[in-house]
C-alpha cells in the first residue's frame, strides 16, 4: 500500500510542477532550486544538483536560482 501512495504522490507532484510551469512565470531551474532547498532532512540527489548547476550557466536561470536561494536563506 505504501508503494501505491508513493507512486500517486510522485504522479501528483509531477502534474503540479507541469501546471505551475505552464501557468506561471516559473522555470524548471527555479522548481529544482526550491526542491533542493525545501528543508527536508535528506539532501537533494546528485541528479537534481547537476541540473541546477547546468541551468545556472544561463543568465536568466542564474538570477532565478539566486533569487530562490536568497528567499530561502
TrEMBL record:
Q: Where is the ENTH domain?
A: 21-73
Q: Report if keyword ATP-binding is assigned.
A: no
What is the species of this protein? Ficus carica
Q: What is its main location?
A: cytoplasm
Output the Gene Ontology cellular-component terms.
Answer: clathrin vesicle coat; endosome; Golgi apparatus; plasma membrane
Name of a matching Pfam family:
ENTH
A GO BP term, please? endocytosis
Annotated Gene3D superfamilies? 1.25.40.90
Q: Does the keyword Transmembrane apply?
A: no
Q: Which UniProt keywords apply?
A: Cytoplasmic vesicle, Golgi apparatus
Descriptive protein name: ENTH domain-containing protein
Q: Name one GO molecular function term.
A: clathrin binding
Where does the record say this protein resides?
Cytoplasmic vesicle, Clathrin-coated vesicle; Golgi apparatus
What InterPro entries would the database entry show?
ENTH, ENTH_VHS
Amino acid at each position: 500500500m505504501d508503494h501505491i501512495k508513493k507512486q500517486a504522490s510522485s504522479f501528483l507532484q509531477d502534474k503540479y510542477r507541469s501546471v505551475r510551469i505552464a501557468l506561471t512565470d516559473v522555470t524548471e531551474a527555479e522548481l529544482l532550486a526550491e526542491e533542493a532547498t525545501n528543508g527536508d532532512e535528506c539532501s537533494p540527489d546528485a541528479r537534481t544538483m547537476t541540473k541546477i548547476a547546468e541551468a545556472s550557466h544561463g543568465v536568466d536561470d542564474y538570477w532565478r536560482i539566486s533569487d530562490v536561494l536568497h528567499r530561502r536563506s
